[in-house]
UniProtKB/TrEMBL annotation:
Gene3D superfamilies: 3.10.450.40. Residues 30-119 form the IraD/Gp25-like domain. This is GPW/gp25 family protein. It comes from Fodinibius salicampi. InterPro entries: IraD/Gp25-like.
Amino acid sequence: MENGKDFLGSGWSFPPAFDKEDGKVQLTHNREDIERSLEILVGTRKGERVMRPEYGCNLDDMVFESFNLSMKTYLADLVETAILYYEPRIEPLNINIDETFIYEGRLMIEIEYLIRATNSRFNKVFPFYLEEGTEI
């Protein structure tokens, strides 16, 4: 694989896509695969996956809760716990909930992590929308 880091893994691209020329599924590799895995993990409700009912974060249960320091800490803990259980390739270093855009109905979940196998630090920002779409 690329850069000799094939030990980090590969998986289907997200969302799934297929190559029109050869009919094969498009794959992600290495760090990109880890980032897609984080997106899936944070965006999945517990019970949504049939064979892994405990997989996910259930962040959408918090959509109508009032936002305060306790909720901020709870959200960060939900994300960190899910990563510790379901993404063994990384170690979460810091989970920060950025509330800059809270009045627009959006929180930014910033995940700083360490790839265990390469001892490399990265971060991923996941937008969490507090409201459903209102424009029709």
